Hints:
By secondary structure, the chain is an alpha/beta fold. The protein has helices at 2-11, 13-17, 29-45, 52-66, 69-84, 93-110, 119-130, 138-155, 161-166, 171-187, 195-199, 203-213, 232-242, 264-271, 310-319, 335-344, 360-367, 383-390, 399-412, 452-462, 481-494, and strands spanning 218-226, 243-251, 254-261, 275-284, 299-307, 323-326, 347-353, 374-377, 414-420, 425-427, 430-432, 437-441, 444-449, 470-475, 499-504, 512-516.
Amino acid sequence: MIKKATENLLKHRDEINALNVFPVPDGDTGSNMCSTMLEACKYIDNVKSDDLIEVWKAVKEGALMGARGNSGVILSQILRGMADASPREYITPADFVKMISNARKVAYSAVMRPVEGTMLTVVRVLDERLQGKNFETFEELFDWIVEIARDTVNRTPHMLQKLREAGVVDAGAKGLYYIFEGMRDAVKGNIQVNLEEVEQASVEELQRMAFEEITNRYCTEVAVRRNQVVEKSELEAFLNEIGDSVVLVEQDDLIKLHVHTNHPGQVLEKVIEFGEIVKVKIDNMKLQHEHVISTQPTKEIGVVAVSPGKGISDILKSLGVDVIVPGGQTMNPSFADLKAAVEQTHAKNVFLFPNNANVLLTAKQIAEAFDDRRVIVVPTSFVQECVAAMVEYDPDAEPEDLLKRFEEAISQCVPISVTRAVRDSRYGNRRIRKGEYLLFVRKELVSHGFSLVKVLKEALEKENAHEKEILTVFLGDNYRKPELEKIQKLIGEEFPNLDLEIYEGGQPHYPYLMLLQ
């Protein structure tokens, strides 16, 4: 069911990505949800038994590790809710109804401010409509689920004004519908799955993701013929402590375990305590790496930042950022990406700058994932805020004092983003035409039009630029030199008080990101 749901979601990934609620090419919900489901499938493939709980454990752990963006994290929590409510041996239609109810509970609890008209609404409506109903077969249940999900998706524009103005349904809700549709196909006997074929369009991205997510070098499998009673929970706890992707199977007097770890020798030393080793297989999954990344904290302060472009990454590194995670619009980093980056800092206190509203929820999950270090999420929605904060960075300062400096710098800066509309649309009472420049100050559309100079001048005047000192411009990979010359002329003539600083940013989609201070 999970794999068929993933296949169906992959087939509609581009459609879901295209469901933008505003005419900016930042649609990545489909890709984020696919990343979540694909990693769940990879974890399923590592399960060596048919034990239902083991399979669900793989689903929820894999989904969280693959989760990218808000849509991915929320989807992982829906799957977690289903997994946690699953019976241990087999599932009946009545059990699945309870699993949907728990999925709603867990998913809503993971979001600080739940918004209706999203995938959360789909799982909520399903829970409410399922109460008091009885289904004899899974075929009957899933026909009903798919019908209700489809109807809820079609009603999302009535719940969110942005969807209504753009004339689209919610992307995440539509993605969840396709997941349930795929599950229904599996229930009805269509269990032929070819994920490799439908994955092909994004194979390069997936290869990069898989490469980055391997933080434990050795895939270790051991079969032991035991000669004494083994406390399975104790062995599982040990394996989880030294690695991940743990699978532990007992059959008669044989125990077989699988773990990804940097210390296979410790695994062998442990299992030899309670039996005779009959088979060992150890594969080096990072043979091409020069060394294994140690996760043990060795310094006081570290900084991780998400960056949308190489030029901006270089600037952030020069200001003191330890680890850069590529990301931004259309390329939200996953839970595993951020977790690995935090580990690479080797720091006891790690400041994490998400630099995108769609990465913030994942970052908060990261903050709860560590026991051996403190992760402090600085809730930046724009990379310009991170630049302003890092100017105040002092690695010798106390974490609390440093956080105050960061917050003060962010509150005093004005992040500006300039892009172009890719289609006709509406934004509130404004009519947006394809090709217009769109200028955002933080999340608000401040000005738009076909003249970049007029749009920028209007925005700078609204933000009292005559009272500011510096305007920093980060050039995107699609900026135009004649436009930049006009910007320089505008600042020189109309805002001579501003020191204009220009850097190669390399970010996609936004030809100009600006920081007014």
